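re: ur question from yesterday

yeah so i grabbed the chain u mentioned. its 81 aa long if i counted rite. heres the sequnce exactly as i have it in my notes:
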Amino acid sequence: MEDFNMSQTTLRYFEEEDILHLMISDEHETNSIEISQNITAELNEHHELIGVEIIGASSFLRDSLLESVQAKLLQLSQKAA
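ran it thru and got these structure tokens back, copy pasting raw so excuse formatting
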């Protein structure tokens, strides 16, 4: 497990399970909502977002980054034309 601290945000990656856990707050989780098949939003008692869990994180991040880069390249090529 690796920890990365970005101010109050904590990012943890569990390599064996391929799970990325982003904690925005250290408040107690009282509920969670499945955003998609592999993404869960964690909520506090006031139904505010305190964390996100991504299962299958390596392929999710790879696909998201590739999609973003391809979209940006398309924008740049359209501006150059």
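noticed a couple things. The two ends are 46 Å apart (CA to CA). also Confidence is low (pLDDT under 50) at residues 2-6.
anyway ttyl
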